[in-house]
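If you are new to this repository, start here. Below is one unmodified record pulled from the training split, so you can see the exact layout before writing a loader.
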Amino acid sequence: MVKVACCWDDATETDIRLVEMLRKHNAKATFNINLGFHYQNFRRTNTWQPKGGSPAFINRWLSIADLKPLYEGFAIASHGLFHMNFDPSKVDEFVIDQTEDRKRLEDMFQRKIRGMAYPCGVCDELAASRLAEAGFEYGRSTLYVDDFTKNDNPLILKSQCHFLDPQFKEKFAYAKEHGGKFYFWGHSCEMLDVKEKWQLFDSYLDFISADSDATWVDVIDLVTER
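And here is the target side for that same chain:
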């Protein structure tokens, strides 16, 4: 038996296509949202334009009006109100960025927000301790670990891989044999409008969902069942 969780950063327009794919495979997911970058009724152009798509591709944040209906049934986590990278000299401001985002997300989705994802993965023990004091139960880093159960601090949470890792299937198989938990992450905008990338990820979802030993769970489930 293996429990599988995934999370996605930034709440970009490509999440619409991603959510359709996840629903098709009955896959759970956690979406990490930086609410301060989203206009009420307009999809704002994202400052990060991934390379590799067609010239017509533009990475956009979803509008606030898009968020609640799109993510219905999925888990939500903080990604910082304004995606502030952790800086030890500005730790108080960093905590405010995360807690203010959490508060607004809780008001919007009418549920308790228990986790967060570090913007750009920047974190250390100081950040972890301060977020724990602020009531967060986990903080996803961009560090990796082969066996999820080897995570020694849920506030510096390590996943097993990025969603487009060329060894995705091998790492999934390893997780089945070691610890029984598999966690991957990414940004849907990294697939841009490239058909082959979307097809590849769809094949990964199909691979997991076809495995009778695999069960989809939320990230918080992996953390609380450590």
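Two things worth knowing about this chain: The first strand starts at residue 2 and ends at 9. The first helix runs from residue 15 to 24.
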